[in-house]
Amino acid sequence: MPETGGLLAIFAHPDDETLVAGTMARYRDAGLAVTMVCATRGEVGEIAPGTGATPETLGEFREQELRDACAAVGVGDVRFLDFRDSGMRGTPENDDPRNLHMAPADRVVEPLVRAIRELRPRAIATWDESGGYGHPDHIAVHYHATAAFHAAADPSHAASAGEPWRTNALFYSVIPFEEFGQVMEEMRAQGVEIDPPGDAEALAALPRVPANCIIDVSAQYARKMQAMASHRTQAGDMDQFFKMPDELRRRIFGREWYHRTAPAVSPGKMLDDLFSRPA
């Protein structure tokens, strides 16, 4: 029987969990159950040289990398849905009918409802509406996880998917772009260039929610870095973070930002725990 009553993280690709790896480690350290559900195996991601992965085998490699990353932060319950990585908007892979963002909502929501009713989490974390930087799969998983959060509590929804369960809180993971911008400026002042996480104008146009919960994961920082380094096929994407001076890297990765959307948080209130009482 799986552990119940803790945190359920629902994301689109292996390496998305980097946003919440410290939080997962923190709650595992506290003895709480943590489960990662990943909707795809990241089959169309970049392939770093020297890993042995090919376009045909990349999904297998990335599945193992996610398992390794989660093991580094103490999470053994890692589950995958059977959807394909959609790739970025406008790429040829984006039109594959097997893709997550092409899937009918009920095909994604029902297995998530089953997982919620089985695991009975007290908190769920997923992407916000922006998908961080507009990736179609990130946006899709935001909507499907949100729908599943509500549907799992509805006795009239999918009676065969288990007893209804009302999760206490739903959180959206927030990328701290303002903090990243400050760190990038400091790095440039030190003569270190780092690529921004996308086109600034396009990023600014995406719908965003403000953080109303910041989790201190400084005690879990080393394991979070180990988890990030587990994504060997994605080393090109990760390398720039490892180029940061440790002091600046700790500023970014020693905390994790969230927006609690349900229940709503009182304006001006900043939480420091995913399991806080309604505020």
Q: What labels describe this entry?
A:
279 residues, alpha/beta, 15% strand
Structure notes:
This protein has 279 residues and is an alpha/beta fold. The protein is 37% helix and 15% strand. The protein has 10 helices and 7 strands. Strands 3-2-1-4-5-7-6 form a 7-stranded mixed sheet, sandwiched between helices. Strand 2, helix 2 and strand 3 form a beta-alpha-beta unit. Helix 2 runs antiparallel to helix 8 and helix 6 runs antiparallel to helix 10. It is globular and about 60 Å long. 44% of the residues are buried. The model has no long low-confidence stretch (mean pLDDT 91).
Task: Briefly summarize what is shown.
The chain has 279 residues and is an alpha/beta fold. The protein contains 10 helices and 7 strands.
Mean pLDDT: 91
Number of strands: 7
Largest sheet: 7 strands, mixed
Placed side by side, the strands forming the largest sheet appear as 3-2-1-4-5-7-6
What is the rounded distance between the termini? 33 Å
Helix and strand topology:
Elements: E1 7-11, H1 21-29, E2 34-40, H2 58-72, E3 77-83, H3 105-119, E4 123-127, H4 131-134, H5 136-151, E5 169-174, H6 177-189, H7 200-205, E6 213-216, H8 221-229, H9 235-242, H10 246-253, E7 255-262
Parallel strand pairs: 1-2, 1-4, 2-3, 4-5
Antiparallel strand pairs: 5-7, 6-7
